[in-house]
Structures are given as structure tokens and as C-alpha cells.
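User: Please predict the structure of the protein below. I'd like the answer in C-alpha cell form so I can feed it into my own downstream comparison script.

Assistant: Understood. Taking the following sequence of 242 residues as input:
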Amino acid sequence: MSSSIVIIFLFLSLFRPCNTQTCSSNNTNPCPPFSSHPPFPFSSTPGCGHPSFHITCSSPHSFISINNLSFSILSYNSNTSSITLSPRPNPTPHPNCPSFSFIPTRHINLSATPFRVSAATCSRLSFLRPCSPPSLPNCSHCPSQCHLIKSPSHLLPDCRSTHHSPQYSDSPCLTDILGFLQQFLKNGIQLDWDQSRDPYFTNCTICRANNSTCGFGSLYLAQLRDGCSGCCCRWFCSCREK
């Protein structure tokens, strides 16, 4: 076989129809709160959708991980690009600490993610003020709980970095800060995202407009190496669907 034929064969192989089974919607497992297959940017399949929106399907709630904290997805609003999340219950950090299973042992960090705490959620924290002197547990054993009682707004640093600064002057104090935060987190915090400010979304828009599927990571790149037609965006590689 001549070298020119080999080159032509290799060139054509790059434009074979791609196998999109990796990002197909064949998953029949329940994935609440979605009534069917999770829509983009969500995906329960590794390498598909947006990397920050990978979820684990489960009942009664599916899960999403944000900066190594796991959350139950309580609801999703496609009209406002928002989700309501509740931290997955965790064991008490120390036997001598009060049991507040929905309060994580560290603050909820959204840095380097597309998510932002909604104004409605931040406003509920902005008026939270502990009574003086605060009733504290053993701070040697329960340092994170003591810190939250003294500074409850530190639970969501994203709120402190916006205009939702604490409004203590006219708000009544609360004696049971941890009890309030426990119910607050159990009911869920609302997170928004802005597609126009995230490069993953921006670079994926053209591909999706051309009826392509956005993916990322080694699984999808392996699919590209197998040969498929489609476009490769800055972070996302996408294969045109059959």
C-alpha cells in the first residue's frame, strides 16, 4: 500500500460517525429531581456534560459534589438556572459535640466553580445574630461549631463577598444558632450559575448549536481517538451525534 493511500485512509478515519454511547441517555435509573435523563449541563455519565455538574443518581435525592462536599439535590429550576441543595448528613465530629448532622465541619466553599449562592439564601443569613454572651459547646472538641455560633455568616463565604453584609443593628439575636443553621441547611440553599461567565459553557455553546454533545476528560478523548467527526472546543471535545 502506497504512502498516499495510507494518508488518505487515516484522514478519512478521523471523520467516521462517532460513537455517542458514552454520553447517551439510555440510563433508566431514577435521577430525581429530574423526571428523565438529566439535561445539560448535568450528567450522571463520566466525561459528559459540564465537569462541575456531574451527579450521582439515587433516590429519594441524587447527589452532587462541590469542592469535596457532597450535597443532596432537592430541586432544579431550569428557568432560573438554579438548584437547591442540602449537605448530606455527616456523623458528629466528636462524641462531646452537639449533633447537627446537616452542618458540615468546614464552610461551604464555592470558589473555582460556576456556582454562586442566591441572593435569597444570603439574605436569610445576613440577619442572623448570636445573643451575647453566646452559649458555646466545648470549643476544644468542637471548634467549627464554636466558630459558626460566633460568626454564622462564615458558613457561606460567598455571601460575605457580595453586598449581603450582615445587618445586625435591627435584627433580634438568636440563642440557638446551630439549631437554626441545621434547619436552614436541611431545607436547602439555592445556588445559581451564569453560563455567560463560565468558559466551559461559552466554548460549548457552538458545539451544542451544531447538534453535538459536549464532553470532557479521558473517556471522551478516547472516543475521539477512536475516530469521530465533530469539533474540539477549548476545554470540551464534542462528537456530532448520529
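That's the full C-alpha cell string. Residues 230 and 239 are 4 Å apart (CA to CA).
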